[in-house]
Design goal:
Among the domains are: about 200 residues, Nucleotidyltransferase, domain 5; about 90 residues, 2-Layer Sandwich (Alpha-Beta Plaits); about 100 residues, Alpha-Beta Plaits (2-Layer Sandwich); about 90 residues, Alpha-Beta Plaits. It is an alpha+beta fold. The longest helix is centred in the N-terminal third of the chain and has 19 residues. It contains 23 helices and 30 strands. The C terminus is likely disordered. The strands form eight sheets. Strands 1, 2, 3, 4, 5, 6 and 7 form a seven-stranded mixed sheet that branches. Helices cover about 30% and strands about 20% of the residues. Keywords: mRNA processing, mRNA splicing, Nucleus, Repeat, RNA-binding.
């Protein structure tokens, strides 16, 4: 038997059903016995939603009112009545089992499953298997319209069924027409058989992913804005009703191995992916989640792995994975098992532990643990921030993709987010420095398409392009080096900036409107250095916070120089459209190119905290030198890249308790004279006393 089911929400109708997160307000159903071609009683039930504010489309199409819905039963009670009435009708027809049949996939996948998941009650088993009438109709009548273009009305018109929608109540006409369509498909001319129902997975299955796998780009999405503590199961719950591939949730990590609020999700087919895209800006708790298309290559970069150690660890399927962070470097497997205790036994004992190590074998303080059931995992999570040795241990839910990402990508090969490239040749042309001060001669563009480039911005500005200062377009990148959707533009005057903000505010760029605000150079600098500027005010970047800021270096009081040949390789004009290339100076170029000390100060402060500055190359102009250029510069017979002595090196991966003496000891054997640094960097009295101690070497 089939149970023909139709429903409506308080919001969108038709192809957009469920895309606006509105609640179910109507269910209509009728039992159809296929062998005897008999039907049961037609039932119509209103559903009381938590929010009775109906959309205009809903009012117009359904004719329902908030007053009428206010007297209805809530969804859980209606579903109980549904099960009871269906069982009663089946007994009358002499049947015991049934399968749902709906008009398309939206009612069950995009409405019922997400709503019941958010309201924390379970759907009965019948809602995990159903027939899609549109697909069955197209199978029976191949010459009919494509499945995505089918509706109840078009199917009825194709069969020539003379039904008048206006004669019946909303929902009743739809169910009666669907029953008539089914009977036509069962007629002697067609003899259609319902054999392959659609299925909804009961739960998300974890599992490893190999880099050698082929992942269809039409099945992958990127979710942004996730709470940092969300797990793969939380993400699967957000996409409840849609079938995620086994091991198809990959949480993205930053260069420190911490979650960055993004995840890549792989679905079983493109149809499920397209339904997932309709959940753009749906909510997970109080946060809305952005959903975009992604590629199979991106998914494999995050989730793929080939380590035998990891593959063996993840070979035990359907395990709950917990990540431990902050372990003492001397911690052993016995220490971890003892910390977890008997109330949360680890699957396989020591085999259920995986310590994360650096390529040289040193421990990182991270480990992954397998548990056979949710109860054991919950007991383990209760030990969050308990003490092991002299350190408190953090415990989080994790995923198979995170295991591979942390162990393989971060620690055993290249980092997920590249650190600052070396060597670095700083190139900032002397006439054009970053604006400062409180004069509001800049504009901020917010909401740019992520694919927008400088050409798009110049086209967006229109006639105002001529009022932009040379090198005045600054694309803001996020910590992953991707476009953030923001840009700053330096105008020639505050009046020009005001006019641009008035003229271009909410003007369209591609398929998005862009907000344009007037701001000052100081505000622009704060954002470019990692601060935030929003309705709540201006938050300084980390490098400007008293508790985080490194010593106030004076940068280079003696101007650092670059060989003219090397500087010529990195002219920032090459990064701008040819139409915006500044006119060459009439004066002969000097033998060396100078860059301002202010820029060095910005660079040194900023990179103390972030692996990649969120600025465009045209803003600060730091470009990685090609190996050939560096070699040529090193062997040249002219002025060195940095004045000697005074060359700087950057150290990464220092222990948190490292002091100046440990760093000096690390560089023992490199001969530098302390007096040569007095004019280069401002030193505290304590630092000066260490550097001027009777030693033959010092370091910076």
């Amino acid at each position: 038997s089939l149970v023909v089911l139709f429903g409506a929400t308080a919001g969108a109708y038709g192809a957009k059903l469920g895309s606006d997160e509105r609640e179910l307000i109507l269910l209509v159903w009728q039992v159809v016995d296929l062998p005897s071609k008999k039907v049961g009683t037609l039932h119509k039930s209103l559903v009381k939603a938590d929010n009775l504010d109906l959309s205009d489309q809903c009012r117009e199409v359904s004719g329902l009112t908030p007053e009428g819905l206010g007297k209805a039963e809530p969804l859980d009670r209606v579903l109980q009545q549904f099960s009871q009435l269906v069982s009663s009708d089946l007994k009358v027809l002499g049947r015991s089992s049934y399968t749902l049949c709906s008009d398309g996939q939206l009612l069950i996948r995009q409405v019922l499953h997400p709503e019941t998941s958010k309201k924390n009650f379970l759907l009965s088993d019948c809602f995990y298997s159903f027939y899609d009438l549109r697909k069955e109709f197209h199978t029976c009548y191949p010459s009919s319209a494509a499945v995505k273009d089918q509706t109840i009305k078009t199917m009825a018109e194709y069969l020539g069924l003379g039904t008048d929608e206006a004669e019946e109540d909303f929902g009743v006409w739809q169910v009666k027409t669907m029953v008539a369509i089914i009977f036509s498909m069962l007629s002697e001319g067609c003899n259609h058989v319902f054999t392959e129902p659609e299925t909804v997975k009961y739960k998300y299955e974890t599992g490893p992913c190999s880099k050698s796998e082929t992942v269809d780009s039409e099945t992958v999405i990127r979710a942004r804005g996730l709470p940092w503590q969300s797990s793969d199961q939380d993400i699967a719950r957000f996409f409840k009703g849609l079938n995620i591939a086994k091991g198809g949730v990959a949480l993205c990590l930053n260069s420190q191995g911490r979650r960055n609020g993004e995840a890549l999700v792989r679905f079983v087919n493109s149809e499920q992916r397209d339904l997932a895209l309709e959940r753009h800006k749906h909510h997970m708790g109080s946060r809305y989640i952005e959903v975009y298309k992604a590629t199979g290559e991106e998914f494999l970069k995050i989730a793929g792995g080939t380590s035998n150690e990891v593959a063996q660890f993840l070979s035990k399927e359907n395990q709950v994975i917990i990540r431990m962070r902050g372990l003492p470097f001397t911690a052993t497997q016995e220490d971890v098992l003892g910390f977890l205790g008997s109330e949360c036994p680890v699957t396989g004992g020591k085999e259920g532990l995986l310590f994360v190590k650096y390529p040289d074998g040193r421990p990182t303080g991270d480990a992954f643990v397998l548990f056979s059931c949710e109860e054991y995992a919950q007991n383990a999570l209760k030990k969050h921030k308990e003490i092991l040795g002299k350190r408190y241990i953090e415990l989080f839910r994790s995923t198979a993709a995170e295991v591979q990402q942390v162990v393989l990508n971060r620690y055993m090969s290249t980092p997920l987010i590249p650190t600052l490239p070396t060597p670095i040749i700083p190139v900032i042309p002397p006439p054009y420095t970053i604006a400062t001060g409180s004069i509001r001669d800049c504009v901020r563009l917010r909401g740019l398409p992520y694919t927008a480039g400088i050409d798009d911005i110049l086209e967006f500005m229109g006639d105002a392009t001529g009022d932009i200062k040379p090198h005045g377009v600054h694309m803001v990148l996020n910590q992953q080096g991707r476009p953030s959707g923001d840009a700053f533009i330096q105008m020639k005057s505050a009046d020009k900036a005001f006019m641009v903000a008035q003229k271009c505010h909410k003007k369209m760029m591609k398929d998005r409107y862009v907000e344009v605000f007037q701001c000052s150079g100081e505000e622009m600098n704060f954002v470019l250095m990692g601060g935030t500027l929003n309705r709540s005010g201006l938050s300084p970047p980390p490098c400007k916070l008293p508790c985080l800021s490194p010593p106030a270096y004076a940068a280079f009081q003696t101007a650092a120089v670059i060989p003219a040949e090397a500087a010529a390789l990195y002219q920032p004009q090459a990064l701008l459209p040819t139409s915006r290339t500044p006119q060459a100076s009439a004066a002969a170029p000097p033998a060396v190119t100078y860059y301002p000390a202010q820029a060095a100060q910005l660079y040194m402060n900023y990179t103390a905290y972030y692996p990649s500055p969120p600025v465009s190359p045209t803003t600060v102009g730091y470009l990685a030198a090609p190996p050939g250029a560096v070699a040529a510069a090193a062997t040249a017979t002219h002025t060195p890249i940095l004045p000697q002595p005074g060359a700087l090196v950057r150290m990464q991966g220092l222990p948190y308790n490292t002091g100046m003496k440990e760093i000096l000891s690390f560089f023992q054997g490199y001969q530098y004279a302390p007096d040569d640094y007095n004019g280069l960097i401002q030193l505290s009295d304590q630092a000066r006393s260490v550097l001027q101690a009777p030693k033959e070497w010092v370091c910076l």
